[in-house]
Design brief:
The protein has about 575 residues and is mostly helical. It is built from 32 helices and no strands. Helix 5 packs antiparallel against helix 6 and helix 10 runs antiparallel to helix 11.
């Protein structure tokens, strides 16, 4: 720890010499001397005055400088001061730094322990929070009502209702289970983990409910697809805010009913409720899924007229909406005007061009994407790419290559398609899924290489048992892209394989996938019935309803967007 302090001290001194005004913006601190002197040369003697610099802290780099200053002044040894630094570090979600500070405090109190738990809850290592909590209990930690909301948040992130129940018991044991914030966080945790009965029980036993309580239970039912119950709760809410409307719109989108989401948005506008970023993204998603270009353009116009601040999420949603509504030209204009882009944004534009626009433009954009991670001899350098675009995500993923291979199939670029396919596997170490095999098969068919097309589909490796996400993901993506021959080839191969091995589940899976891509849901149902009659084990979670739902719900980078939307709604729930 001493070495760390010394390193931070030198960093602090170097920064102060090069940027003398970086630490404080208050006029009482000189820009040409240390923190401990005022503009008149007088020394600041008050501890509170010295700690006031914490209020100006905006990031972790700044915090490390302030900590070095507090070490110089001898204040960091005071538990009260260390706990303030600890809390700031937790707010910035830097778990490692927070733990370092925590371990340096001789007698950490409840506030300190709660700060570490909060850091776990907002960071990426939520699974470590339960371990830390029970370790602290063994060391004599006395929890309070502020301990449990972040713990329940960690359980929600992990999707672990078992730990949630343990912490529920801990809350009862410590007499804080009737505290409103604790109850609200329990409802949200149980709802996100699918334990709707537990969420309903907590909600029913509450003596006092606020707007967060109603939003949490409504969100629980909406997420599980019980939209009728969720809407009844929405109707009887004593009060509503924009989060209430967002929950219902998001629920209808997830349930495959974009029309109801748009209807709710119109009702929301009539009620005079101003939507936020989450609202706009939901509306644009509804427009995209229902191909309502006119309404999508209307929403875009509202954003412009009201000077709504543009950002990455909104711009990506606009790109995706315009692409799916066959206005790739407008999508490209929005894309070109963006100052910051991430992987989802690049994928949205590449797929828009490759599937709905000019495939050659999509391939050019892909080359531009990977250009920054190529050496002078054209070799891909992933280490260089990671460093160069840290936080931007310019290294392509499996979705990117679906668009690239689709473009090659549409244009009949056999050599280029082979090259991209090899690059995906050998350079970027991406495991092909059905979408990649399907694109390559259609590329071969377009070039007259029917035997190679059959061979690549035969060679498809066994996938996991739970196909409810994967199969439907590429089905939704490829359902809008038609190749030469379309479904005939895959149907022919799958039927032949089923006839040769009637008990092989993977062959039925292939046929289901082929029909799903083509949107032939009656044939999907027919194959399901055939499997049932032949005693073929049903695939877990991969029912006709599941396939229909996710194909209609498909959106670019679904897992990433769902994470963003869930975190946004969770934050709004806790703040409302």
């Amino acid at each position: 720890m001493a070495r760390i302090y010394i390193r931070e001290l030198f960093r602090f001194r170097t920064t102060i010499l090069s940027h003398p005004t970086i630490v404080s913006s208050t006029p009482n601190i000189s820009s040409s001397s240390s923190f401990c002197t005022s503009t008149g040369g007088r020394r600041i003697s008050s501890c509170n005055s010295r700690l006031a610099v914490l209020k100006s802290c905006r990031n972790m780099r700044h915090l490390s400088q302030i900590q070095a200053y507090l070490i110089i002044c001898g204040l960091f040894r005071r538990p009260f001061v260390a706990s303030k630094v600890l809390k700031l570090s937790a707010d910035f979600a830097d778990v490692d730094y927070t733990i370092l500070i925590f371990r340096s405090i001789d007698l950490p109190d409840t506030v300190c322990v709660n700060a570490v738990i909060k850091a776990y809850s907002v960071g990426s290592v939520a699974h470590q929070a339960p371990v830390f909590y029970f370790e602290m209990l063994r060391n004599g930690f006395l929890c309070n009502s502020f301990t449990f909301p972040p713990l329940f948040s960690c359980c929600r992130k992990m999707g672990c209702v078992e730990y949630g129940e343990k912490f529920h018991g801990q809350a009862i044991k410590n007499g804080v289970d009737s505290v409103l914030d604790v109850q609200n966080s329990m409802i949200h945790m149980y709802g996100c983990c699918g334990a709707i009965e537990c969420a309903e029980k907590v909600f029913g036993e509450m003596s006092v409910r606020d707007l967060v309580s109603w939003n949490s239970i409504t969100d629980a039912y909406a997420n599980l697809g019980h939209l009728d119950v969720a809407h009844r709760l929405f109707d009887v809410m004593p009060d509503r805010n924009v989060i209430s409307w967002n929950i219902m719109m998001g629920g209808y989108l997830k349930g495959g009913n974009p029309g109801c989401a748009l209807k709710l948005f119109r009702e929301m506008a009539k009620a005079g409720v101003r939507g936020g970023e989450t609202t706009i993204v939901s509306v644009l998603t509804a427009c995209r899924r229902s191909a309502r270009l006119k309404e999508g353009r209307s929403v875009h116009g509202v954003l412009i007229r009201t000077f709504f601040k543009s950002n990455l999420f909104l711009d990506t949603s606009l790109i995706d909406m315009y692409s799916k509504c066959a206005r790739v030209d407008i999508a490209r204009v929005i894309y070109d005007r963006m100052t910051k882009r991430n992987l989802v944004c690049w994928n949205a534009m590449i797929l828009g061009l490759c599937i709905h626009g000019n495939p050659e433009d999509g391939l050019k954009l892909f080359e531009e994407m990977v250009d920054g991670i190529q050496s002078e001899d054209g070799e891909i350098n992933l280490e260089k790419g990671i460093k160069r675009i840290e936080g931007q995500g310019l290294i392509p993923d499996e979705i990117t290559f679906i668009g690239v291979l689709c473009a090659c199939a549409r244009q009949g670029l056999l050599a280029e398609g082979r090259n991209y396919y090899s690059q995906m596997i050998d350079t970027f170490h991406i495991k092909p899924n059905f979408a990649h095999y399907w694109c390559m098969a259609n590329l071969f068919v377009g070039a007259g290489l029917v035997q190679e097309a059959e061979e690549i589909l035969r060679r498809m490796p066994e996938e996991g048992e739970d196909l409810s996400w994967e199969s439907s993901f590429w089905a939704g993506l490829l359902s809008s892209c038609r190749f030469q021959g379309e479904v005939f080839l895959g149907e022919k191969i799958a039927t032949y394989l089923i006839d040769s091995e009637p008990q092989n589940l993977s062959y039925y899976r292939l046929l289901l996938n082929v029909y799903a891509v083509a949107g032939r849901w009656e044939d999907v149902a027919r194959v399901k019935e055939m499997m049932k009659n032949r005693g073929i084990k049903q695939m877990p979670g991969c029912s006709l309803a599941d396939l229909k739902q996710i194909v209609h719900e498909f959106k670019l980078g679904e897992k990433w967007k769902e994470g963003v939307e869930v975190n946004t709604v969770t934050g709004e729930l806790l703040q409302s």
